[in-house]
Write a structure and sequence with these properties.
7 helices; disordered N terminus; 2 domains; 291 residues; two-stranded antiparallel ribbon; 3-stranded mixed beta sheet; alpha+beta; 37% helix; Alpha-Beta Plaits
Length: 291
């Protein structure tokens, strides 16, 4: 077996490089700990802020879209999907035979256990104590893990900026009266309140109108561990573009992979830096010996 010396790296140098790489891993572990510790203690899910959207009452007037634009000072644009400047969107569904027509309000679902926040290595996306999932642009490093993690395809890059930022609905968490979209809904198809109260309202509507709502259930009550944007519909949820999911929270499935990403990133970076530094020192010493 060749020794470290014959390969050009002494045992002492190897241990020096390994120690530096290990330091990188330790720093990475601290980074994960800091990001996790930054999240506050959450209220019980039934006490968190939420929205109930009843698609059977929605007329597609798009007043909610306009209210969102006004409050967030976003420019008007004609789009058929969420963008960095369109945080909520009313979409229309029609079956092939035209017998079923429905609208759907497309926005952040504000998951009880959000995959986007769990996937963010720096805590730029995090859940507030009372429920809304919000974004801190000063922490964001632009990795876009949140875009890949969200099962609803919500977070978007705002490419209109020279330094693109993630944009998504934040449930107007700074607005005293609650979300601007819910305040202007003329049909009361969108209601703002505590999640537990809204679930009770939704179930009362289902009980009072047998056969009106799809499978007599509320989308978001259990899906992906539960969401704070709850939906009632007469049309199959998948036809409205909503993914079919079980009741297991996504972070529970992927936490091990999420935790190891920054460890690998910083650990490998520390090791490569140490190797580069060693190679430069070795080259410099060889040059001095030759002269």
């Amino acid at each position: 077996m060749e020794s470290y010396k014959t390969k050009g790296i002494s045992r002492r140098d190897f241990l020096k490089i390994f120690t530096t790489g290990s330091l990188g891993l330790a720093l990475a572990g601290n980074t994960v700990g800091i990001a996790s510790a930054s999240s506050s203690v959450l209220l019980p899910a039934d006490q968190q802020k939420a929205l109930l959207y009843d698609a059977t009452l929605c007329s597609g007037c798009k007043e909610c879209e306009l209210a969102c634009k006004r409050y967030n000072k976003l420019p008007d644009e004609k789009v058929d999907d969420l963008t960095g400047n369109t945080l909520t969107l009313i979409k229309r569904y029609s079956s092939e035979d035209g017998q079923q027509v429905s609208f759907r309000k497309y926005q952040c679902m504000h998951c009880v256990e959000p995959a986007c926040a769990a996937s963010c290595p720096v805590g730029a996306l995090h859940k507030l104590e009372d429920g809304p999932v919000v974004y801190d642009s000063y922490k964001c490093i632009g990795c876009r893990y949140c875009m890949q993690a969200c099962p609803f395809g919500v977070p978007r890059y705002d490419w209109s900026l020279s330094y693109p930022l993630i944009r998504k609905c934040e449930l107007c968490y700074l607005r005293e009266a609650g979300p601007a979209c819910a305040e202007v809904c003329p049909k009361q198809s969108l209601i703002y309140g505590q999640r537990g109260d809204l679930l009770e309202i939704a179930k009362n509507r289902i009980q009072a109108n047998p056969g009106k709502y799809y499978q007599d259930r509320v989308y978001g009550e259990f899906e992906a561990g539960g969401t704070s944007f709850l939906i009632l519909s007469a049309v199959a949820f998948e036809n409205l573009g909503l993914p079919i999911m079980d009741d297991k929270a996504l972070p529970d499935r992927t936490q091990w992979a999420i935790n190891i990403v920054p460890l690998i990133f910083l650990g490998v970076g520390g090791t490569m830096s140490a190797i580069y530094k060693y190679a430069k020192e070795k080259q410099s010493n060889n040059g001095k010996e030759e002269s």
